[in-house]
Write a structure and sequence with these properties.
By secondary structure, the protein is α+β, with helices and mostly antiparallel strands. Helix content is 58%, strand content 21%. A hairpin with a 3-residue loop joins β7 and β8.
Length: 249
């Protein structure tokens, strides 16, 4: 599921629970709020699980894995190569700073929520018009989505969020690249995909620039670590079967 779909799903949740809070008895307030948070967390987990399943058990994944094997790296060897890459620690450190942004916004979100619940909700909750009550509840639920988006956009203004995802085990065949969290079919027709390699650090990486509704542009890097011999084979296979140029450094 794409980020835009996640955003639409979150908006559907706000409408559903605003409707429930408007028309169900007032003494169910905390029940509805608890269900709201539980359902949101459950859906986010389901989205991540679905993404992993697509890369490992979808028809496209089976198509790629059924091709002629060219390179295969298990999790143990991938981890050893990752640990030998000193520059990776710096990249992950910078990535961790970006991932802390939601933690920064959390106190702000709850502060606004408590102010809203204390000063605004008593005004509209007693209104005779159900539409007014519904809109008031809708705004309250939107606090949990729109405030973090606004904070992310302010803090990330003019920047591109960079996320490095080392792939712990993967397979490269004459039909594509397949592993836990990564799936690329050959030939590569997606214009948003760029393939790069770094011989000194011993990896090939799949680079995608995506539009993130919450913070703007985002660059996702899925990195495949391998030994020099496998790296040469991988580069040649991607050029030959992927029909794409590779930038090696």
């Amino acid at each position: 599921m794409r980020r835009a779909s996640s955003l639409l799903l979150s908006q559907a949740l706000t409408v559903l629970y605003a409707f429930a809070l408007t028309f169900l008895p007032a003494d169910l307030y905390w029940v509805i709020m608890t269900l709201f948070f539980i359902s949101y967390i459950t859906i986010m987990i389901a989205i991540n699980v679905r993404r992993m399943r697509i890369s490992t058990s979808s028809p496209d994944a089976q198509f790629v894995s059924s091709g002629r094997q060219i390179v295969k790296v298990d999790s143990k060897r991938a981890l050893e190569l990752m640990q030998s890459d000193a520059a990776l620690n710096n990249e992950l450190r910078e990535q961790a700073k970006i991932m802390m942004i939601p933690m920064i916004s959390l106190p702000v979100v709850f502060a606004i929520y408590y102010l809203y619940a204390g000063y605004v909700m008593p005004i509209y909750s007693l209104h005779s018009d159900p539409l007014v009550r519904f809109l008031g509840n809708l705004i309250m639920f939107e606090i949990f989505f729109l405030v973090p988006i606004a904070i992310n956009k302010i803090l990330m203004r003019g920047k591109k969020a960079l996320f490095v995802q080392p792939i712990m085990s993967f397979l490269i065949t004459d039909r594509g690249i397949q592993g836990a969290g990564v799936l690329v079919k050959f030939p590569i027709e997606d214009q948003s995909i760029d393939i790069r390699c770094n011989r000194s650090r011993r990896f090939v990486e799949v680079v995608r620039e995506q539009s993130n509704p919450t913070s703007g542009k985002m660059i996702m890097i899925q990195r495949l670590y391998m030994d020099p011999r496998e790296l040469d084979k991988a580069v040649e296979a991607i050029k030959k079967y992927g029909k794409i140029a590779i930038k090696c450094t």
